């Protein structure tokens, strides 16, 4: 079985210090959280950035500063900026971090009702636009899917040349408006991707650790972090992203699954080797 790639989603665009005081906003806080995850065993940092007051932004220069600082503090780490941004941002605004030519970036494969009047909009033309940009810049897309229909969209756009193989999916499960977080739901998504594809599971809230166990057993990969869940156990805030990563490492050890280094993660995901 392949070694386990652990991704740490250290801050997201929605979670706040009011939810957990350790949620990072500043450059220094992002470095602290990335380093805690890296030291615990994460090989990928899934990155949103904020201004110092916590306001989410897709500003290229803010991404540049944060990514450079994380790369310096975490040698070899794979930094995966989000192109999801926040509800209401334009396509070009969301795509700004791709101008920095990261190894990976997220590509959301469908529209989602986040709740109330918030709609996370990803039209077919948006997905094509993002996919073409990533092909042009040699960026590996992590295909974020919140439901089965989004897998179908990714497969259809692959046939049209907007997404290249081998594909890597991220099953984001338990989000309002998307698929649930049950084992049944996981099996449904897992059985819907091509045999040569890889996948990561990101369970939101209480689904985070049960779905991590399912992915570890199945041979998939795991995402944890404050973006998805700010608690280490019911009602107990996690002290850091590293604490969440360390829990996955312990579970993987008990289940006989080794942890991938950043270099090994690059091989599994077919990324170019980096020094």
The biggest beta sheet is recorded as: 8 strands, parallel
Order of helices and strands: EHEEEHEHEEEHEHEHEHEEEHH
Strand order of the largest sheet: 5-2-1-12-11-10-9-6
Amino-to-carboxy terminus distance: 26 Å
Would you tell me the overall average pLDDT?
96
Strand content: 15-25%
Spans with pLDDT under 50 lasting ≥5 residues? none
Describe the model:
The chain is of the alpha/beta class. The protein has one domain: Aldolase class I (TIM Barrel). The protein has 9 helices and 14 strands. The chain has helices at residues 27-40, 60-73, 91-94, 124-137, 148-159, 183-190, 208-218, 241-254, 262-269, and strands at residues 6-9, 44-47, 49-50, 56-57, 78-81, 104-108, 112-115, 118-120, 140-145, 168-173, 198-203, 221-224, 231-233, 236-237. The chain has an 8-stranded parallel sheet, with helices on both faces. Helix 5 links the parallel strand 9 (140-145) and strand 10. The relative contact order is 0.18. The mean pLDDT is 96.
Task: Provide the descriptors you would attach to this structure in a database record.
275 residues; alpha/beta; TIM Barrel; eight-stranded parallel sheet; two-stranded antiparallel sheet; 9 helices; 14 strands; globular
Give a quick rundown of the structure.
The chain has 275 residues and is of the alpha/beta class. The chain contains 9 helices and 14 strands. The radius of gyration is 17 Å and the shape is globular.
């Amino acid at each position: 079985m392949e070694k386990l790639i652990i991704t740490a989603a250290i801050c997201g665009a929605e979670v706040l210090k009011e939810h957990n005081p350790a949620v990072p906003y500043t450059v220094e806080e992002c470095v602290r959280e990335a380093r805690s995850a890296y030291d615990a065993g994460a090989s990928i940092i899934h990155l949103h950035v904020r201004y110092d007051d916590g306001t989410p932004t897709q500003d290229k220069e803010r991404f540049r500063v944060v990514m450079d600082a994380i790369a310096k503090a975490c040698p070899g780490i794979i930094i995966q900026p989000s192109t999801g941004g926040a509800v209401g941002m334009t396509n070009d605004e969301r795509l700004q971090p791709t101008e920095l030519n990261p190894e990976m970036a997220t590509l959301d494969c469908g529209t989602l009702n986040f709740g109330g009047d918030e709609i996370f909009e990803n039209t077919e033309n948006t997905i094509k636009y993002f996919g073409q940009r990533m092909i042009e810049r040699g960026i590996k897309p992590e295909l974020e899917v919140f439901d089965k229909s989004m897998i179908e969209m990714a497969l259809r756009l692959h046939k049209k040349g907007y997404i290249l193989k081998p594909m890597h999916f991220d099953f984001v499960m338990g989000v309002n408006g998307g698929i649930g977080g049950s084992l049944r739901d996981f099996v449904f998504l897992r059985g819907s991707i091509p045999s040569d594809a890889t996948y990561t599971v990101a369970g939101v809230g209480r689904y985070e650790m049960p779905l991590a166990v399912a992915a570890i057993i199945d041979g998939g990969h795991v995402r944890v972090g404050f973006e998805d869940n700010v608690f280490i156990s019911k009602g107990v805030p996690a002290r850091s992203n590293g604490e969440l990563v360390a829990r996955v490492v312990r579970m993987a050890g008990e289940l006989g699954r080794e942890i991938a280094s950043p270099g090994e993660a690059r091989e599994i995901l077919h990324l170019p080797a980096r020094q």
